[in-house]
Amino acid sequence: MPASLPDAHTRLAVLLGDPVAHSLSPLLHNTAFRAAGLNALYLACRVPPDALADAITGLRALPIVGANVTIPHKRAVLPHLDRLTPEAEAIGAVNTITRLEDGILRGDNTDAAGFLSGLDLEAMRGAPALVFGSGGAARAVVYALLTTLHPASLTIAARTPSTGEALADAFSRFDSHTALRVVPLAEAGAALRRSRLVVNATPLGMHPHEGSTVWPLAEDFGPDHTVYDLVYTSTDTRLLREAASRGAQTVDGLEMLVGQAAAAFEQWMGQPMPVDAVRTALRRHLNPSPLVGVSDDAHLPTSSP
Ligand code: NAP
Q: Is the CB of residue 163 below 6 angstroms from any atom belonging to ligand 1?
């Protein structure tokens, strides 16, 4: 069992972001440390934009094993690090920093791996795909799809088509099958009906948009669809409910959240994260009902990242 209180041997990991008050990462990683029997602690640190450089200098000075980086620092942190993984370099954003043995701070992006961990990769290989959104999460998803699943077509449906076009341009070098297309959000219907994988990478469905969905035409969904909502503050978004009611397979955003954290944990601790304990703690936290362990886990993918 881990020490019940931190002591002089406790390993420390931190989250750097602003705001961080509602982050699930402290619950996630502290649950993982405890379940793995590790004497380690994860703290969320609010770091305003003008303090980011000092915070990274602090990481260098203190014996911290690693850090997560979240809004608004995921892109701004790049020039402060010593090394980037190919994923971080390609996506242009860092969500995980690891201190290597020689003190080097390496930036990685584990969102792409986290996204893929929620999917049956064999079933989805080559499947036509549609991604709603063209922000930071969409960049990780598009990179993951192009480099791992090689979709026959990959449509980005963007509220602001110019950001969609910029995303498509940035990833064209990975698009060996010329799969990428950009459409305005309102014109996504035809691509959605043709796709087998549909991903929501917009905040629609999370606070303050809980009752909203990025695609209100539920009749466009059917049994051939896998609908993946990256929103993780609810496991039962309107998008997932409506898609499921038309026979679609659904994947909620906790799968990506757990998957990206598992990749970070393994880099920091050198061992796999106990993902089942983490999933259970997060689902209890989001659905604090006595029956949650029975009803909510029943429809979940059981694959470990
Ligand atoms: P972001 O960089 O701010 O991008 C948001 C995207 O959604 C932009 O393309 C934006 O379009 C679009 N959008 C925003 N409001 C919209 C609306 N009302 N209608 C249509 N499109 C809208 O945010 P992000 O970091 O990519 O995050 C997107 C979602 O993914 C959030 O819900 C976030 O919590 C989730 N996420 C989940 C995980 C996970 O581990 N599960 C990881 C990362 C992110 P414009 O360009 O027009 O503004």
A: yes
Catalytic residue, chosen from 29, 73, 74, 283, is 74
The Å distance, Cα 230 to ligand 1 centre, comes to: 9
Q: What is the pLDDT of residues 100-111, one digit of tens each?
A: 989 999 999 999
> What would the pLDDT profile of 172-230 be if each residue is shown by its tens digit?
999 998 999 999 999 999 999 999 999 999 999 988 888 899 999 999 999 999 999 99
Running DSSP on this structure, what letter comes out for residue 148? I
- Is 18 catalytic? The answer is no
Angle at 187 (CA atoms; ends 182, 192), nearest 5 degrees: 80
For the residues of 259-291, what is the DSSP string, one character each? HHHHHHHHHHHSS---HHHHHHHHHHHHS--TT
Cβ contacts of residue 58 below 8 Å, gap of 6+? none
pTM comes to 0.92
